[in-house]
């Protein structure tokens, strides 16, 4: 109760947003109704007092740098000391329930229904991935396909057509093989030839052996592409949006080739397969332009999820260890500039392409970036109902943005992790380490949560 009392004593939050922006040609008119993300009553109306208090406590814990840097070690040590059973009793009603949708179809259904009441759609995130050095395992990859297809069915059942499902290429193909492919496909035309070959195979054609792979690796590649084909075809049949997540830069070239190959096979009429673009990387804008050009050469739709990125700390460490230039932007502000530039460019491309050939997910917890995107949409005449530009945030965070956008008629998704506690928490720990800037920056949201608690307890 002392925590509640301290929260109730916090000063009231005063916030006023002034959005002014000049386009390249003219002054953008101030919107008729400016959106404020300080509306705590709307943001948390769907949550109980207990859920609001839990959110404040968990986000407060996430603001401590030591815990974020050492979260996986803390979890492993706690499991040794407390035992698996006791640790689960502590973590399930706290960290797990705050950020994870559940570990079975029923719990996922309950989360989906709760979000649906406030107009939020699911973007399901299975905790399936692999890194270089892990032993290739065909049985694991095939199991990952089955899990992905099951989640695709669940996504469709709860959200219908255009529901989102996230996936990682490393869940379906060996990361070691992807690394070898990335190192041999640096030339732009080499990339296009590989993409065209893989797209042709996934569309029903033949696959020519790759000269620099041995017989075993070529067989492994073909099996991997067959898995990508099955997932892409299934998503296309259900009219889902299959979002390929970005990973480490040493794999991203091959991941982009795989994602664009799937786009070549399945994006004939609209974007089914979307790639993710990490704007903390210096070359993000150039990468977007290059990959958009490739889809245009193939005559297929282009889908893009725009994020700031989740591997910044590790990328900087790798550049030091490998003695190569840091691929990341020097500051959060520089990343924000790149992010806003990318979003503005793609929103203009949505209009240039006539709407349905280019779709964008503005995935951000940054209020300024979201407001800039909204202003740009209005200036270009992009309606939220077009479903060409949508928004996304992580489940359990930034409800003040997500719920408010939904209440104003925008299409909004929550990225919702799914899986058992001891499968998902290590995954979340790795993401927490990489998302320290986001998690440490939750002070404003904690203030809004405190205001809502004060309103619930004291009536103002």
TrEMBL record:
Catalysis: reaction(s): L-proline + a quinone = (S)-1-pyrroline-5-carboxylate + a quinol + H(+)
Superkingdom, natural source: Eukaryota
Domain Proline dehydrogenase residues, every copy: 109-443
Pathway involvement of the protein, from the record: Amino-acid degradation; L-proline degradation into L-glutamate; L-glutamate from L-proline: step 1/2
Residue ranges of the TM segments: none
E.C. number(s) listed in UniProt: 1.5.5.2
Sorted UniProt keywords: FAD, Flavoprotein, Oxidoreductase, Proline metabolism
Cellular component terms per the entry's GO annotation: mitochondrion
Enzyme category, top tier: oxidoreductase
Pfam families reported for this sequence: Pro_dh
Cofactor: FAD
One of the protein's GO biological processes: L-proline catabolic process to L-glutamate
GO molecular function ontology, one term from the record: proline dehydrogenase activity
PANTHER family: PROLINE DEHYDROGENASE 1, MITOCHONDRIAL, PROLINE OXIDASE
Family: Belongs to the proline oxidase family.
Record function comment: Converts proline to delta-1-pyrroline-5-carboxylate.
Designated name of the protein: Proline dehydrogenase
